Amino acid sequence: MSEMANESTGRAQQAGQTAKQEASATAGQAREGASQVVGTATDQVRAVTGEARAQAGAMAGDLRTRVTEEAESQTRRGAQVMRQWADDLSGLADSADADSPARSLVTQAADRGHRAADYLDTRGVGGLVDDLQHFARRRPGAFLGGAVVAGFAVGRLAKAGSKADGSGSGRSAPELPGHGEA
Q1: Measured between alpha carbons, how far is 50 from 43 in angstroms, rounded to an integer?
Q2: What's the CA gap between 109 and 179, in Å, rounded?
Q3: pLDDT in tens, 52-108
Q4: Which of 18, 48, 76, 144 is the most buried (most CB within 10 A)?
């Protein structure tokens, strides 16, 4: 009986040892599988991140191109308007008396308008921005003062334009008694 017990114990130990080896092998395979899954997931995250960066860069480039094209278009349109105003001023100067002091001022304004329109046509918005940046670096106080004056002028023009369009604040001047429409 003792031999049977020893044989039975030996088989149990061998079965336990085999189970232990199989469990260890299974755990190793699970670790390898998990490592592969993590590696694949990491690769996928990198690929998605790279694609997102590429698309964001393409969108930013497209937006930059569109903004530049629109700015150039508006600059050309502004140059055309400025040239038309300068032509109108030239016409006024031509029809004025030769000895009129206003004629020389209007002629100077027309010439400067033509030069400004030519400048915008040749340099475009990029040249204008470059020149403004250089001026701001050389004379920051004058640049800031000019920006304040320009902002004030644009605000006044916008306010005057909205009143002329009838899209003002909706308030109107009070009517005096006896001066209203009948």
Answers
A1: 10
A2: 42
A3: 999 999 999 999 999 989 988 999 999 999 999 999 999 998 888 888 888 889 999
A4: 76
User: What angle, rounded to 10 degrees, do the helices at 2-95 and 101-138 form?
Assistant: 160
- Cβ neighbours around 113 below 10 Å, total: 20
> Residue 128: how many CB atoms within 10 A of its CB?
15
143 exposure class (CB count in 10 Å sphere: 0-12, 13-18, 19+): middle
pTM flag (> 0.85): no
Q: What is the DSSP string of 154-177?
A: HHHHHHHHHHHTT-S-S--PPPPT
Q: What is the domain partition of the chain in residue ranges?
A: 2-162
SS3 181: coil
Tokens in use for 24? Answer: 């260890």
- The dihedral over CA atoms of 12, 16, 19, 21, expressed in degrees to the nearest 10, equals -130
Residue 71 tokens, joined: 């700015």
Give 74's contacts (C-beta < 8 A, 6+ positions apart): 125
